[in-house]
Every structure is written in structure tokens, then in C-alpha cells.
Write a structure and sequence with these properties.
Layout (H helix, E strand, L loop, with lengths): L2 E9 L2 H17 L3 E7 L12 E7 L2 H9 L4 H10 E9 L3
Antiparallel strand pairs: 1-3, 1-4, 2-3
Helix pairs in contact: 1-3
């Protein structure tokens, strides 16, 4: 089953965050992932969830998504994201 990482974030420091934007796609691709939704503003249809920007990444499996998150070479980029954004990240398994 495919694995999907869903990121809800707001940017606090775009100048520093740009390094993450420029370099993380190579790591996503390295682990077989691809963007489904790339940093867009969401339209709330129900409830009180108020995301500012949303990213959805698709991986061949949840294990591949976890391997991406644990990649030692990407940790500096993840630190940049943590320092320059307010973010929430979940992993879900697809149906097919």
C-alpha cells in the first residue's frame, strides 16, 4: 500500500526556508516519493482546521516514507523546516 505524508505548515522565515524548498525534492525522489500537492493554500470545507499551506507526498509504501524521514543526509533540511515553519506532519496508508 502506498504511504502519504501530509504536511500542514505556516512559514515563519521564508529566506531560510528557501534552502529546504530548493533541496528537499532530491531526497523525496531518492526514496521513490513524489509531490501530489505542493505547498498550496487549502480551502476549508468543514470543521475548524485552518491550515495555511498543505503538502501531500506519495511514497510506494509507508516504510519508504519512514525511510525518507529517517534519511541521515536529509536531517539538516528537516531541521531547517522545523526552525522556519510551524508544522504538523502525519503519515497515512493508502487504500490501493
Amino acid at each position: 500500500m502506498k504511504g502519504y505524508l501530509i504536511l500542514d505548515f505556516s512559514i515563519k522565515d521564508f529566506a531560510r526556508f528557501k534552502e529546504y524548498i530548493d533541496n528537499i525534492p532530491a531526497f523525496i525522489e531518492k526514496h521513490g516519493g513524489k509531490y501530489i500537492v505542493q505547498g498550496v493554500e487549502a480551502e476549508v470545507m468543514e470543521g475548524n482546521w485552518q491550515p495555511e499551506r498543505v503538502v501531500v507526498l506519495e511514497f510506494p509504501s509507508t516504510e519508504k516514507a519512514k525511510t525518507f524521514l529517517a534519511d541521515p543526509e536529509a536531517q539538516t533540511l528537516f531541521s531547517i523546516r522545523h526552525d522556519t515553519t510551524q508544522s504538523k506532519l502525519i503519515l497515512v496508508e493508502g487504500c490501493f
